[in-house]
Amino acid sequence: MLLEYAAIATMIFVTTLVAVIAIVLGSLFGPKRPSAKKMMPYESGMNPIGPGTRRIPVRFYLIAVLFILFDIEVVFFIPWALIFNDFVKQGDGVFVFVEMVTFISILLVGYIYAWKKGALEWE
Hints:
Blueprint: H1 6-29, H2 58-75, H3 77-90, H4 93-116
Helix pairs in contact: 3-4
């Protein structure tokens, strides 16, 4: 049974090995001529103004997390849509449809809650 995963394990091993070799060769043989100008942080070709670390409002993180959360949950629609027709042919279409409606309603409750709390407002 584990033999079926040998190709995947080999691919992961080979790609990791190639990445490590590329990084090591680049650091060994790459040019190393640092200067003050080269070591400056790059910001669209302009000299940086102020400190590199600034306080970012929590609202930014909240919107980013909500986006990722809802985006990942929406990805579950794709496999469901692909297999739904097979379940309809087997006679289980109503059950699968009710399960997806339940999933969507849970998502909708969370979305409405975040909307009412003002988590989606950008100022």
